[in-house]
Write a structure and sequence with these properties.
The chain is α/β, with parallel strands linked by helices. The chain has 2 domains: about 140 residues, 3-Layer(aba) Sandwich (Rossmann fold); about 60 residues. The protein contains 9 helices and 8 strands. A 6-stranded parallel beta sheet has the order 5-4-1-6-7-8, with helices on both faces.
Length: about 210
């Protein structure tokens, strides 16, 4: 990985910027309970962690042809009350400040849809990113590379000028397809250009003080 060419650092949200395991589990468990279905098992949890809400609902309710009733229930449940269960990754704010001070573009590429703005607002991060791309911004969310291509286009960047930090197979596939550098976060089994365990490690790799 040629760190001297990197001009932008792009973060996935769930599992990178935030530990959202408890929030997402509580959210989907409440949805499932509303239809008398059991709570998420571990395989389901791993899969919905990577998916958009639409993909997750289709995956969790394969027996229902018309999902309108499920989406209606979702609208009543909402996600905002679960944001309190999200935990910001240690060192994120400091890394974002260091990136800004060293001239890097800071971005987000996430399969969240309509909750990202509220998350950034609640955690006082709205001014810490130059570009935020969600599943609602593009036609094809991750693992498709469209989010990363959009960031390249909007910011005038070449693929090898971007470091994308993700924790899932969807993130890896998007990075490979877009030909950007990829850092696997807290997932040592994920094939990546570099694997890291903390925000401090990312700062060290980029030589940010």
């Amino acid at each position: 990985m040629d760190i001297l060419k990197i001009k932008a650092v792009v973060f996935d949200c769930d599992g990178v910027m935030f530990d959202t395991a408890l929030a997402n589990r509580k959210y989907y468990d409440e949805v499932l309970a509303a239809f008398n279905k059991p709570a998420l098992n571990e395989e389901q949890f791993i899969n919905v962690h990577m998916m958009t809400v639409k993909e997750a609902i289709e995956y969790l309710f394969p027996e229902i042809n018309d999902l309108s009733q499920v989406y209606e229930r979702l609208s009543h449940i909402g996600y905002h009350k679960f944001i309190d269960y999200m935990v910001m990754e240690a060192g994120l704010k400091e890394l974002l400040t260091g990136l800004k001070n060293n001239g890097y573009i800071r971005g987000i590429a996430t399969n969240r849809t309509n909750t990202m703005e509220k998350v950034l607002e609640d955690f006082h991060l709205k001014n810490d990113f130059e570009i935020v791309v969600t599943a609602a911004t593009v036609k094809h969310p991750k693992p498709d590379p469209e989010q990363l291509f959009l960031i390249m286009d909007k910011c005038g960047l070449a693929a090898r000028e971007i470091l994308f930090i993700g924790d899932s197979e969807y993130d890896r596939q998007a990075a490979v397809a877009a030909r950007v550098w990829f850092a696997g976060f807290k997932n040592p089994e994920l094939k990546a250009d570099v694997n890291v365990r903390s925000m401090d490690e990312i700062a060290g790799i980029l030589q940010i003080n």
